[in-house]
What does this fold into?
Amino acid sequence: MTITLAIPSKGRLMEKSLAALKQAGIAVTAGESRSYRTQVEGIEGLEVLLLSASEIARELRDGAIDFGVTGEDLIRETVPEPDKAIGFVSRLGFGHADVVVAVPQAWVDVQTMDDLGDVAGAFRARHGRRLRIATKYWRLTQGFFSRTHGIQSYRIVESLGATEGAPAAGSADIIVDITSTGSTLVANQLKILADGVILKSQACLVCSKVARREAGDVALAEDLARRFSR
Ligand SMILES: Nc1ncnc2c1ncn2[C@@H]1O[C@H](COP(=O)(O)OP(=O)(O)OP(=O)(O)O)[C@@H](O)[C@H]1O
Ligand SMILES: O=P(O)(O)OC[C@H]1O[C@H](OP(=O)(O)OP(=O)(O)O)[C@H](O)[C@@H]1O
It folds into this structure.
């Protein structure tokens, strides 16, 4: 009888995940550095693994783990149909960050997604190419631009880091990225559009609906979920 739960292995989400588990009566001690395994006290049969936040989203999608703590942004970006594959057990109240559409501050006439739609429509005629959006959130970007706002003329430039630098570097025109204090956007002379918040994210405890559980594991999974339900 074992249930697996993965929590982030580093950074801003790790310490708070450990604290949230402690509050739920589960004491987790990280093993030697670089080990993915931990020692768990307070709940029988729970195995807690340390993985990167983005890896946790992939493992949940694939059913390779039963539960995970990670950002809602990473879940919605990684899992094509989140409602089918994932159950949100609890929003944990930390790791707050917004996925936003940001454009150069110099674009004084562009304040809203409608304004941006006008710019995107005229972009090819004016510049000989489509509007380029730097992001690592291509799924969220496509959904927001194409489906929510009916903007079809753009090209996503995949960014693996320092996304806010892309407009100044000339590799993209605008960006979609995560922000919390907003200081990185300001430092790069970018502004968020008035209706440009795609997702308000925070850390969540989620369960995989595609992971195969043995009959005896169901009670344990329910116990874990109950400890986090608010
Ligand atoms: N200011 C912030 N900037 C970026 N992410 C933040 C911020 N605040 C909270 N988060 C959340 O932290 C998570 C990302 O954590 P982290 O960067 O450790 O993940 P990762 O993408 O797996 O890392 P990597 O792949 O670089 O090892 C996201 O869910 C994100 O929403
Ligand atoms: O709105 P802000 O508070 O400026 O945070 C936003 C920045 O933080 C993240 O980067 P990273 O994971 O490198 O985080 P860090 O720069 O905060 O360490 C994210 O990709 C932004 O670049």
About this structure: The CA atoms of residues 134 and 163 lie 6 Å apart.
